[in-house]
């Protein structure tokens, strides 16, 4: 009997229902308490940061407009990092849900802030909320903080996902919760590694073109606490299914844009607020794209594998991308002042190159059909580079 009760097999329905309720309430209660604690701490921190000495009276006045804007950004970052952890737990990454939040806090320790004043007392970690800088006067990075605030707020951010992990474990042990599949737990295949390389290349191309286009918030190092966790989140999430992938741009919008601050300031739905959101799009859309690009590696690996299994489709797609590559190249040479880097193509011309690649693809289909998939991946890299160059080119 003791063994049956310990395994939950011989327990009464009332006991099982109580366990089920506890497993369901645990993440909700823990998330509410963590959110309340974070809001309380940041309320006092931001209130102090937004205060100024009033004259001639000897008391401090709070600039409530500044307070609302900063406080909304703090709450948005907390929600973004917490949602990233929760999404990874639901996705089955229960051992890695902490990585995006830790990447956010530790990015300045690895790369610096790009601001000399922020290096005072060594490289400072990033706190989730701003206003923690009593000793870093002149530091332009609002979330630069000491270890105490950074670790405190990191712990609060991780509480919801940790509680959900525990609840899933309790529920699965009692037989009434289906454990999410541990996706990607096997060994990486060659297609997986190639796809990871592709998305890393695509992320690098976005960052490169973003800077040359003149719309990236400068300096880049100051943006790494926003960008690095988004890339980490996307790599771990590894899905573009519409039913779940909507969380990728949502987390990016909460973590890396000021849209939540506009909403809390009451301007999000006014004409001025909407114009502010629209005008910020060149500066924020790349942030929204980073987790989506990073999450594409697993679907891309499946797609490449399908092309290896169906080489006829691979040949057709390869020649379509070859024509697109030639069109991009011709446009860049004629209108952007670019120079064809391949001396063989310069010698035979783009039309001959299209015909030649088409003929070689048919030969490859005849003798090495699975290699067509790798050529498709290579041409996809070329198209990403063309798009990045077109975006970065001044007009």
Describe this structure in words.
It is a single chain. This protein has 395 residues and is mainly alpha-helical. It has 16 helices and two strands. The protein has a two-stranded antiparallel ribbon. A hairpin with a 6-residue loop joins strand 1 and strand 2 (60-62). Helix 2 (13-49) packs antiparallel against helix 5 (147-173) and helix 3 (64-91) runs parallel beside helix 7 (220-237). The radius of gyration is 26 Å and the shape is globular. The model is unreliable at 1-10 and 53-58 (pLDDT under 50).
Produce the secondary structure layout.
Blueprint (H helix, E strand, L loop, with lengths): L1 H6 L5 H37 L1 E3 L6 E3 L1 H28 L7 H13 L35 H27 L16 H23 L7 H18 L4 H4 L1 H10 L2 H6 L6 H25 L1 H13 L1 H25 L7 H6 L1 H18 L3 H22 L3
Antiparallel strand pairs: 1-2
Helix pairs in contact: 2-3, 2-5, 3-5, 3-7, 3-9, 4-7, 6-11, 6-12, 6-16, 7-9, 7-11, 9-11, 12-13, 12-16, 13-15, 13-16
């Amino acid at each position: 009997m003791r063994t049956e009760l310990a395994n939950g097999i011989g327990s009464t329905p009332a006991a099982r229902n109580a366990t089920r309720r506890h497993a369901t309430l645990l993440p909700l209660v823990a998330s509410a308490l963590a959110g309340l604690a974070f809001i309380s701490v940041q309320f006092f921190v931001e209130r102090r940061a937004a205060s100024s000495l009033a004259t001639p009276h000897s008391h401090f006045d709070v600039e409530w407009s500044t307070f609302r804007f900063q406080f909304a950004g703090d709450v948005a970052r907390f929600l973004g990092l917490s949602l990233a952890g929760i999404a990874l737990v639901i996705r089955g990454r229960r051992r890695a849900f902490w990585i995006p939040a830790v990447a956010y806090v530790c990015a300045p320790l690895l790369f610096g802030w790009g601001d000399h004043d922020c290096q005072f007392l060594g490289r400072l970690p990033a706190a989730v909320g701003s206003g923690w800088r009593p000793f870093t006067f002149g530091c332009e990075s609002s979330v630069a903080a000491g270890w105490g605030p950074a670790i405190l707020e990191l712990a609060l951010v991780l509480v919801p996902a940790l509680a959900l992990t525990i609840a899933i474990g309790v529920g699965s042990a009692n037989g009434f919760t289906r454990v999410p599949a541990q996706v990607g737990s096997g060994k990486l295949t060659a297609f997986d590694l190639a796809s990871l390389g592709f998305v890393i290349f695509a992320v690098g191309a976005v960052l490169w073109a973003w800077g040359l286009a003149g719309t990236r918030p400068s300096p880049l190092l100051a943006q790494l606490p926003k960008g690095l966790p988004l890339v980490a989140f996307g790599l771990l999430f590894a899905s573009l299914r519409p039913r779940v992938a909507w969380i990728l741009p949502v987390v990016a919008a909460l973590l890396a844009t000021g849209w939540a601050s506009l909403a809390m300031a009451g301007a999000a739905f006014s004409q001025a607020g909407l114009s502010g959101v629209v005008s910020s799009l060149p500066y924020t859309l790349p942030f929204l794209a980073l987790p989506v690009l990073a999450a594409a590696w697993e679907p891309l690996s499946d797609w490449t594998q399908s092309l290896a299994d169906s080489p006829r489709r691979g040949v057709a797609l390869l020649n379509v991308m070859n024509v697109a590559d030639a069109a991009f190249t011709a446009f860049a040479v004629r209108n952007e002042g670019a120079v064809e880097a391949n001396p063989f193509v310069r010698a035979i011309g783009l039309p001959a190159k299209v015909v030649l690649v088409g003929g070689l693809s048919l030969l490859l289909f005849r003798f090495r059909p699975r290699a067509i998939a790798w050529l498709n991946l290579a041409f996809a890299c070329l198209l990403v580079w063309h798009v990045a160059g077109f975006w970065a080119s001044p007009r």
